[in-house]
Design a protein that fits this description.
Layout lengths: L1 H9 L5 E3 L14 E2 L5 E3 L9 E5 L8 E5 L8 H4 L5 H31 L6 H14 L2 H10 L6 E3 L5 E3 L1 H11 L2 H14 L18 H8 L4 H18 L28
Parallel strand pairs: 1-2, 1-4
Antiparallel strand pairs: 3-5, 4-5, 6-7
The chain binds zinc ion.
The site of zinc ion (ZN) has 7 residues, from loops.
């Protein structure tokens, strides 16, 4: 501490002593020590005419020198950090906080009441809620993949900031509502497996992890993923040789190999 304080003292400046201890912990009897709330930090010496040098006496930055301002009505520093709300504002804030707590509490109560009424078997509206809520949480990339998988037609629309986008949730809602219960069940499983189609950008050639849901489900349904990968490799490499300048794996010619059934397309790619 001495090393940093000394140059100041040589110039005749004695830095004020500042403690970083929280106010409730601070020993207020230490008269020559300033605590949080008793000063405002200045960015530099001379930021206002009243800046004074100070030294931290404890905490992580003990010994470091900074400048502070103690002037109650300082034009520079008082305005920024010492904002006192009016009594009306304080009352308004209290009302808002109360309303917020009431709202939170009653939502929990509503949920609890619903939970007690839920039947043993998933009802159709509940099933739709589950499916669409799950879909919504999958995020845009999975939405795009699922939408392709189910061949949902998506119209592009302009966002408020002018970008073109497809509102997949809007497309999914009527599609799920039109499904029969068995298909909604299947949709849920496909949703659960959709994110495993993702090949990580940092290692896009990494093969599917054996403990991934997709791999384990493939094994359960006796889907030969190795064979599919081999066929895909052959298919893609011949395709990329033909269209080397502009590979477009999304579109396929009618003579495409029947092995690339819809739904398996792109299993090994992103
Ligand atoms: Zn000041």
């Amino acid at each position: 501490m001495q090393i940093q304080v000394k140059p100041l003292e040589e110039k005749g400046e004695t830095p004020l002593r500042v403690s970083q201890a929280p106010a409730w912990q601070a020993n207020r009897h230490a008269k020559d020590v300033l605590f949080d709330g008793q000063y405002r930090k200045a960015k530099a010496k001379g930021e206002c005419p009243n800046t004074k040098a100070a030294v931290l006496i404890d905490g992580k930055g003990a010994g470091s020198i900074f400048y502070l301002c103690q002037t109650e009505k300082c034009e520079v520093h008082n305005r920024v950090t010492r904002y006192q709300p009016t009594p009306q504002e304080q009352a308004q804030r209290k009302r808002e906080a109360l309303a917020e707590r009431v709202e939170k509490l009653s939502r929990v109560r509503v949920l609890e009441a619903i939970r007690k009424k839920l039947p043993d078997v998933l009802s159709r509206p509940d099933l739709e809620i589950v499916a669409l809520d799950y879909f919504r949480r999958l995020g845009h990339d999975n939405h795009r993949r699922l939408s392709k998988l189910y061949a949902w037609e998506g119209k592009k629309s302009k966002t408020s900031w002018g970008a073109e986008t497809v509102d997949y949730e809007k497309i999914a809602a009527p599609a799920v509502q039109a499904m029969n219960a068995a298909d909604v069940n299947r949709f849920l499983v496909v949703c659960a497996l959709a994110s495993d189609r993702y090949c990580p950008g940092y290692n896009p050639r990494q093969s599917l992890a054996k403990d991934s849901n997709l791999a384990r489900t493939a094994a359960r349904y006796k889907v030969d993923s190795a064979k599919i990968a081999t066929t895909d490799r052959a298919d893609l490499s011949s395709k990329m040789q033909i269209h080397r300048s502009k590979p477009h794996p999304g579109k396929r010619s009618p003579d495409a190999s029947p092995s690339r059934r819809r739904g398996l397309t792109g299993t090994r790619r992103k």
